[in-house]
Amino acid sequence: MLDIRHLRTLAALRDGGSLVEAARRMHLTQSALSHQLKDLEERLNSPLFERKSKPLRFTRAGLELLQLADKVLPLISQTERNLQKLASGHSGRLHMAIECHSCFDWLMPAINRFRDHWPEVEIDFSTSFHFEPIPALIRGDIDLVVTSDPAPHADIHYQPLFRYQSVLALANQHRLIAEAFVKPEDLREETLIHYPVDRRRLDIFEYFLSPMGIEPQSTRQTELTLMMIQLVASGRGVACLPSWALQPYLDSKLVTARPLGVDGVWPTLYAAVRKDQQDTHYMRDFLQQALDSCFSNLPGILPVAL
C-alpha cells in the first residue's frame, strides 16, 4: 500500500509546514502534491493531517507514518549511495563552472554533503567570468556548468533545476520605486551595474532590453554581489539579480526591488553536463543533492514543469 514517495511527501509536508512549501521541496506543483496525499489517504482509509489547522497538525495515522519515514528514508538514501559506489567505483572528477554568480550560497551545502559521500571524487569549481564555460564543457576541461543560458549541442544534456524571477534592485530613494513594475524604456537614463560577462548571458539584456532594442545610458561591472548592492544603495546605478539572491538585502532594507515588466522575467536555471557523464552515479547523486539544496534554501523559486 505504501511506497517511498508517500513517505517523502509526508516528511516534506511536516518539514515545510504547508502544502505550498512541501510542493516546492518536492519539486511538484501543489495540485500534484495534493493528489498524492489524497491517494494515500484513500489507500489507508484515514486522514493524515487536518486541512485547516494552523500550524499544521497531523492525525495519529500521519504521525505513525512520519515515525516510519524518519527511520526508513535515511537508510534508503545511504543504501542507494553505497550500491552506486559498488557499481561504479569510488573515484571520478567533478569540475564545475558557475554562470549563475549568486549560486555559491546554496551550492556549497550540496558540495559539502557530496564530499562526505564521494570522498574520492575530485571536486573543483570556479566562476565563468573570464572564459566561455560551455565550449570548455564540450572539450572536457570541466564537467558541469550551472547556467541560465542553454546552448543546444548534441553532446550536452541540460538538467532543469528551477525557475526564478529576475528583479531590478533600486536605491530606496529611486524614482522607480513609485512604479509597480519596471518598463524597458525606464532604463534608458540609468547606469546598469552587472557582472563582467557577455551581455548575452545576462537576463536583463537577453529577456528584457535587447528584444526591445533599448540600451541603458551606461554600464558598470563588478564581480562581487555585495559591491553591486552597495553601488545600488548609494545611487550609483541599478542592478538585475535573482529575487532569492536579493532577498537578504531586501530584508535588511538596504535596497528596494521591482519586477521587470508586468508579468516579470522568469528564466530557468540548468545544470549542463556531457551526455556521456549524465548517468554516472556520482553525477546523478550530485544533481539530486543540488536540487534538494536549492529547494530547501531559496525563497521564491518554482519547479520546472516537465
TrEMBL record:
What is any one of the record's Gene Ontology cellular component terms? cytoplasm
Q: Which UniProt keywords apply?
A: Activator, Amino-acid biosynthesis, Cytoplasm, DNA-binding, Methionine biosynthesis, Repressor, Transcription, Transcription regulation
Q: Which family does it belong to?
A: Belongs to the LysR transcriptional regulatory family.
Q: Where does the record place it?
A: Cytoplasm
- State the SUPFAM superfamilies in the record: Periplasmic binding protein-like II (SSF53850), Winged helix' DNA-binding domain (SSF46785)
Recorded protein name is: HTH-type transcriptional regulator MetR
Name the CDD domains for this protein: PBP2_MetR
Any one Gene Ontology BP term: methionine biosynthetic process
**What lineage is on file?**
Bacteria, Pseudomonadati, Pseudomonadota, Gammaproteobacteria, Oceanospirillales
The organism's superkingdom is given as Bacteria
HTH lysR-type domain location, by residue?
2-59
Q: Which GO terms describe its molecular function?
A: DNA-binding transcription factor activity; transcription cis-regulatory region binding
